[in-house]
Amino acid sequence: MTDQHQNYANAMGTSGQSTPYTKRHRRNSSLWVPSGAPFTNAIRSNIVAPLEPLRHRFGRQHSAASEREIMPNWLDSEIPRYKLPNYHKYCDNKIRTTKYTFWTFVPKNLWEQFHRWANLYFLMIVGLNFIPQLQAFNAYMGIIPVAIILALNAIKDGIEDYRRKRADNRINRNTVHVWDPQTGRFRKMHWELVLVGDLIHVSIDETIPADIVLVRSSDPQGTVFVETSNLDGENNLKQRSVLEHCRKYCRTRTPLEPCEFDVKVFVNTPDKRINYVHGSMIYNTTGGTDLINRENVILRGCQVRNTTFVEGIVLYTGKETKAMLNNGFVRYKRSTLERATNKFIIYCVFILLLMCITGGAGSITWLIHYEAHDKTENIPFMVTYAASAVKEGFINFASFIISYQVLIPLALYISVEVIKLGQIYLINQDLDLYYEETDRRIECRSLNIPEELGQIQYVLSDKTGTLTENKMIFRSCAVSGIDYEADPSAAPSTDCSEQEVKLNETLLHLLHQLDSNALDDTNTDSNALFYFFLNISICNTVMAHRKPHEDAIEHGYVEDEVFYVGNSAFHIRSEQYDRPGSSTELPTPMTPTPMTPPATFLQPPATPTAITFSELPTPSTPPSMPSTPCETKDPPTAINTPTASKQYSFNASDLVRRISSLGKLKFLKRDNGKAKRIHKPKTKERIYEAESPDELCLVFAAKAYGFSLQNRCPESVTVEIPNKNSLSGAISLQVPVMKILPFDSDRKRMSIIVEFGDRILLLCKGADDEVISNLSQEFKKSPRGDFVIENSRQILQKYANDGMRTLVMAMRFIPQDEYETWLENHERIEATCIDDKDEQISQSARLIEKDMELLGVTAIEDRLQDGVAETIRALREAGIQVWVLTGDKLETAKNIAMSCQLFSPQAKELLIDEQSDIDMLLSQGEVFNALLSGKAVKLLKEGDRGMLEVVRRSAAILCYRMTPAEKADVVKTVKKHLKGKVLAVGDGANDVPMILSADVGIGISGQEGLQAVMSSDFALARFKFLRKLLLVHGHWCYYRLANIMFYFLLRNAVLVFIIYWAQIFNGFSGTDPLDPLYCMLYPIIFTSVQPIVYGACDQDVSAKTLLEEPRLYNKGRLGTVYKKRIFAANMIDAVWQSLVIYFIAHLAYFDTECDFWTFGFLLCSSLFFVNSFHLALLTRSWTVPVLCVNVFFCFFHFGFFIFYNLIATPGIGTKDIPLNIAVTAMSSKYFWAVLFVTVVVALTPRFVIKLIQNKINPGLVYEEALRRKSRSISINGSVNGVSFPCSRFVL
């Protein structure tokens, strides 16, 4: 074996030996792909598994177990993975969102297609055509059009399913490190191969592949932070913790050895409850037991944040994970045009029955009149199938159903779907809907409702992240009732490059004057300043690091003098590296952090100044405590993994030389196709990691003012604060943390309890109403307290008027005995496992968060997105009523509504909270801007007539304090009671119910995950793109599809009516002069591509005009194009065109020697050119593709008949047509004259009527065209502007 092959073999297992159940990949040697199960298992997964739902539905039901028992997969290294108990008991981790498999595609797709009544109708027609007495044409030829339509639909469905399969594969082929018991290390494995009971290792910023219970993390205390935005849309990080008995493995001195980690896990069976997991882990070696709850479990789809790595045991995989169980099906949305078309199809069926009945009656009458059954021998070419005229008439009645089947447009559905695909493609290519900053373009996820964009009457929008940036910027603060608003012209602080913080120079000067002599009992404002900024700097969960997290598992490992990294293996000599235990071993062990002494000022290295605790400020009495200087260090980011015994540090000069021989090692970055070397400057700036953008914003603001968060660990927080007596201008303060009370939506505040000298300090921040209501009575009654509270209320109102998000800061010193009593009760509640545990913890926190003193308030701006105001104004001008649904309080929501121009300045703002408000408003006759509370929304949901009338008369509506369920209720109410088309737009998981309930759902790909995007019909990067999407693309899609659907119905009706008129002169026998093959292919091939190109590309007016004149949107919003009266007018026009086509040809060749086939060729040509020029009259925008397609099919029409005449014989199932019929006819000038006259006469009524209509009652589009034409003439002095031929306007 060569060295190269030996290296590869070592990379895959032991030296030169392949494992008994591992496939070896030459190009991907680091990927672990266990060998598959036998072929019978593959058959089960591909054929039997898809039938499992039927077995569960109709088969015998078995009682389900209340919990599942999970055995570890790593205890026996000799058992192949496909023989593990967990492999057979539980599903795999492969995600399948496809509808079909290779084996089920054909039967399942046909089953779904024949759920459409139209397809069943045509299948019936094919069956009837196999009856000899009813044959209108060759039976097998009748299968051709139906087969083509079914095949095209199947291809479309297959492509869509293939796209889903590719998306599934992208997810299933993600990799995660899984413990391999044979090699004794973590190895990369595809997600789809992960099993229940596996031990997996997930690094920072990676996504969890399955639901896991935590057994180890890089944090010594076992704390893990995860982002759940993919599940619930919340950007705030959630804290999870390792099981208690496993926390010893989080310390690097006690690494986890899986081979000795013998456990058994019991957990509840899979269910949809996201926040519920109940179980236990039994440690067989020690006999201990840990209870498992939601705090110890991370769900699939979460991302690891602020934690170098986590390790856990897989509990649920694949379709049994909570994320997949809650991944509900998106309801099928049918457009208004589709529903209206179904009604028109029914009308066509009635017309068909009427024609068949009259045809059958005419047949009976003709047969009786000519005594056909008595004189059969005297009537040449007369074939009868029954003994009487009446029976023959019924047979002809059935044959007419086959002859007239084209009246129901077989190709309508597939043609419309192809048109919609073309429209979606062109929308996707619109660069105006591309957002460069995030590299996102519009994503059209629903392919069947683009025309709905042109009929929207109500837009219901979320606020945060949809209208705003969801990027928090610190704008101002007020301390002790004094507003320290930053100068708008001031330059941002240079100390915080990550955030734009504009400073107030007065406040900055006061803070930098803080020192031990100035902070005494009398200077209460200075005390408040200190505690205010201490509050915003430490009352949070922000972590501070000097270096980014880096998981050592990616650094490679050494085994048998071979260094493995990535997909490569390198030989090294033993003298080039140090064995384990040497001073150079990697990574460096981390010493457990000792308990921190009480709050201590830490002296900087270059600062000889020391400050004692007697110099610290308090609002009433300064604390007194001894000084205990200590040193803080950032926790190491490289933590030992279970493979630490196999990871070494060595002199890599030889390794570098060998790699360099393959090419110079450079760090390169692509920039516009060119490679550039990356220079990463060294920096000592702290890296802050926060659970929420609000917290991060406040920490950067505190840093800008001199209170810099340096380090945070479970026992203490270290802050650098300004001090003028220090040589460096700052000193460090280390504060021991006693308890953290996290934020919850019930309390609407967060608190941290710290040991401050010999006293216990509580710092609290939260919503104004919750914090101010818990201030102490002593503080409220004091003159200073009254001043601070009143001024703070006014400042809060001012901030709210400016659309700012506000937080209130407060503090309290807690007596020792009170704290101990409270802590004992609080810890008892935390240790229990009860259903209302969260509620009891919240109530317990309220008991300590009382009798506080107000410090100040902060103002954070959630900046309005660019273009929002212009978009809302344009939508309102288009006649669309815009609603904003938000969970914010009234003042903040109202001011956002004003800034985004939701509220009309000419209309009054009226708050509706009770029934009496409705009665008062109805008595007024003016238009107003309505603000609806939760009570008003409830009245709206109940269908209160007064409330509905108020909504109809409102210029704009703002609903505040809305929950996700209430948002969905509002959407459903608008659809039910106001009978309007509703578009809902949002960016978070809390907007998903609203998006799914709307006729059109828009997801904004913003800061709150992808849940809204995944549930939407269209995904946009910015709210401003909604303007062009509706006013331009929506208008075009509706206009095109409405016209083209009428064209399809008219086109087929003209063909059928021609056949009907021919029956008058053929004894109502069902025989017609039109070629049967051409009749079948005419709507599918000859006249299908041209309307498809028209439906995808035509423009009745330019995009610029539509954006400048939003009122043109009324054409679709009011549904003026697709009406019953216009359908009736088109059917009348179809009758006229068919009469002209048939009778002009009939009269032109009357009493001549024109043969049957030549006459039929003339009718086919007249039919084709009348429909082609009809479509030309509809076309408003002539482009090269449109022109080329029309010209091509004109030549194709004649070319088909020339070629068809040459090959048509009874041997191929066609009638024996005389040779050169088409060539002979086209050589006659008389043929072309008749063709020309037919086209002109057939289309003249439509042409004239449109001229009169444009003169008497022009539409909005025509009026705007005339206005722009007049303006062009006045500017140029001549008619050099837009030309307006009558053919550009459609009936």
From TrEMBL:
Cofactor: Mg(2+)
Reaction(s) catalysed by this chain's protein: ATP + H2O + phospholipidSide 1 = ADP + phosphate + phospholipidSide 2
Segments of skewed composition (Polar residues): 1-21
MF-aspect GO terms: ATP binding; ATP hydrolysis activity; ATPase-coupled intramembrane lipid transporter activity; magnesium ion binding
One Pfam family named in its UniProt record: E1-E2_ATPase
Active site: 462
Taxonomy, superkingdom: Eukaryota
Keyword Cytoplasm among UniProt keywords: no
Chain intervals for the UniProt region annotation (Disordered): 1-27
Gene3D superfamilies the UniProt entry points to: Calcium-transporting ATPase, cytoplasmic domain N, Calcium-transporting ATPase, cytoplasmic transduction domain A, HAD superfamily/HAD-like
First-tier enzyme category under EC: translocase
Family recorded in the similarity comment: Belongs to the cation transport ATPase (P-type) (TC 3.A.3) family. Type IV subfamily.
The protein's name: Phospholipid-transporting ATPase
Annotated organism of origin: Acrobeloides nanus
